[in-house]
Design brief:
The protein contains four helices and eleven strands. By secondary structure, the protein is an alpha+beta fold.
Amino acid sequence: MFYIIIALIVIGIICKITVKILETLVDCQKKRKKMANSDDLLIINEEKDTKPGEMIVNLSLAPGAVRKIKEQVENDVRNFSGNKIEKETSIIEKAKEYPLRKKQYISTDEFRFQGEEDYIIRLEQSPPPGFNNKIFEKVMIEKISYISREEAINSFIYGNNRSLLLERSSSKKYGIKIIGKWQSVRKIRQAQLGWVPFFQSAEIYTSYPQDTPLAATIRKIFKPRPGKNPGLRYDIWIP
């Protein structure tokens, strides 16, 4: 009889342990399902008290969130590729529809494309001999709107034989002056028109030796007009 009672107790303990294991497995399965279907970015897997006022929390990225992120990235890539192809196709189709714009020469080295406004002047300039490396193109000019430079800028725009010189500043960090040289009505003039923008000037200072010669060629001139300041676009060259 004694052995039967012991056996029943052992069987009861084993049954309780088995039930507990099964409950744990079911809970784990439910948690996994919840995480797999969850759109939350972070899931709290476990938390327990350590010391009063302290808690350890284990976080993980939910599989559902991973799936969502993956789908979003794939859609973005697909849309980007589709838009890019569509854009390239539309450009090609438009190019077929419209002929190349003809140059209308104003003088020997000045022209406009057919249909462009009168305030635009384009120039065909070659870099000085020995300057074969173009490092920036279509660069803007900063601080061209200063009132103190207005007369010189207007004279430069309406002058002849225009050219640009680039001069490093000794007083301004990463500063490169843009000096204009041109033929006015009576004489050859030279004056500062503005500055090379900081992005390009800082790149020149940090990427090339300080004694590297600089040259510039004018691509486009914008005449002043109501509500708009004059402007320039130019390329920068080094040997």
